[in-house]
Amino acid sequence: MADSVNWTCPTCNVPVTTHFCAHCGEEPLASRDLTLRGLGEKFLHALTSIDARTMRSAWKLVRQPGELTLVWTRGVRKSYVAPFQLFLIANVIFFGVQWLTSENVFSSSLDSHLYHQDWSDLAQSLLARRLEATHTTLEQYEPVFDSAVVLNAKSLILLMTIPFALVLPLAFFRERRPFMTHVAFSLHLYTFLLLLFCATLFWQDSVSCSGLAGWMCLALTTS
């Protein structure tokens, strides 16, 4: 442990006279770092630092769509969250909002595929073959299908960013932008859409709650 500027980096095993190791960025271990209070301070610092960068990135993404991509490709990295990290954060928020509102945006139930879509006739034919091959009934297969759809929808969002990033170079062929610029824009675009879906789900949920509250008030006053 060392609280002074004269210490030995535990990673590089070289003497250091500054507060951070010039080779790996390591800092000296202080005695309070191994206490509960020190751990709490580190956690709070990391949490507030990440939140500040995340909020700054999300605010720029919402206010000026596309500007965050331009800033990122110009090399401004310290003030904003990386595109893929921001995309993952938006996914966590989005699925949390779906869980709170009991809505599934990117998934459709088996009943919807069978009776409420343009391809319902084909879906019914494929389902009949599936049930016959597996010797199962519709009542047994439906909950398995609905559960699998909800699970696979999470990976579907990530997969949607790939073809969009592949199409962008064709749209900007004359500008010959680096491919990672298109990847960053694709991730930022779907992050923006996920945040938009979150706001929409919250709005719908609040409207439905307001409608339910109004109906209950009406029922109480007329009873």
| CA-based shape | elongated
Number of strands: 2
Strand order of the largest sheet: 1-2
Sheet having the most strands: 2 strands, antiparallel
User: SS-based structural class?
Assistant: mainly alpha
For the termini, the CA-CA separation is 73 Å
Beta content comes to: under 5%
Look at the structure and give the mean pLDDT.
78
Give the helix level as a range of percent. 55-70%
- Give helix and strand order, one letter per element, not per position: EEHHHHHHH
Estimated radius of gyration: 26 Å
What would you note in describing this structure?
The protein is an all-alpha fold. 69% of the residues lie in helices and 2% in strands. The protein is built from 7 helices and 2 strands; from the N terminus they run ββααααααα. Strands 1-2 form a two-stranded antiparallel ribbon. A hairpin with a 6-residue loop joins strand 1 and strand 2 (15-16). The chain starts with 6 loop residues before the first strand and ends with a helix. Mean pLDDT is 78; it is low at 209-223.
Task: List the SSEs and their pairings.
Layout: E1 7-8, E2 15-16, H1 36-63, H2 67-73, H3 83-101, H4 110-115, H5 120-134, H6 138-171, H7 179-222
Antiparallel strand pairs: 1-2
Task: Summarize this structure briefly.
This protein is mainly α and 223 residues long.
List keywords for this structure.
single chain, 223 residues, mainly alpha, elongated, disordered C terminus
